[in-house]
Description:
The protein is α/β, with parallel strands linked by helices. Helices cover 41% and strands 16% of the residues. The chain is built from 10 helices and 8 strands. It has a 5-stranded mixed sheet with strand order 4-7-8-6-5. Helix 5 runs antiparallel to helix 6 and helix 8 runs antiparallel to helix 9 (209-220). The longest helix has 15 residues, at 180-194. The protein is globular, with a radius of gyration of 18 Å.
Amino acid sequence: MKLAVKDAAGLLNVSEKTIYRWIADGRIPAHQIGDQYRFNRAELLEWATAQRINVSPEILSEPETNGVALPAVVDALRAGGIYYRIAGRDKPSVLRSVVDVLHLPDEVDRQFLYDVLLAREALGSTGIGDGIAIPHVRNPIVLHLPRPMITLCFLDRPIDFGSLDRKPVGILFTLISPTVRAHLHMLSRLMYLLHDKRFRSVLSRQESREKILEVAAKVEASLPPPPPPVAAAKKTGTESSR
């Protein structure tokens, strides 16, 4: 969904004048349609997070998520799969190999997904350090997936991924979600797992799929369960102004 300048200003808690200044400076992701600017909710949230800008809770409100339960990370991993010895000598070839193994519906255009993943990396590496990256699309809604999934890939050889710590990446968690809300939910829980020594240990040893899922389930058990489906929400002024 596309947001107007007024919507973006409200969600970022800044003035419309500030939004226009950011657009002129090339700081904020915006799409020009005729003489107007529009913003993608997922892109805006990702940009705000990277800039450490406090956003309005309304940015997480999505009608598309109503009635949809959010899975646990271990369930998303089961849906996405775990793969070993993924080939590739650089970021583009590795991402190509990853897209080829993803469990996707037949109607999903893999070339389009690959292009979107590359475009996201061009804006800034998804490498989080210590040899791990979490490539993901900026707009999860376009894929029309029924549920979030996380695909874990161990590379045949670590590659330069442009991570801040400059360490080569050998482990990729590719996160694909049908909505922004699901994306944030899965990303936050995945980051929790990646801070756990037990989970990092089975990753570094490239343990079996069964062992990785077993440890992931144990670590995630210490987290609150995923929230239940939310009730249909009334349209806000922001939603109706799109």
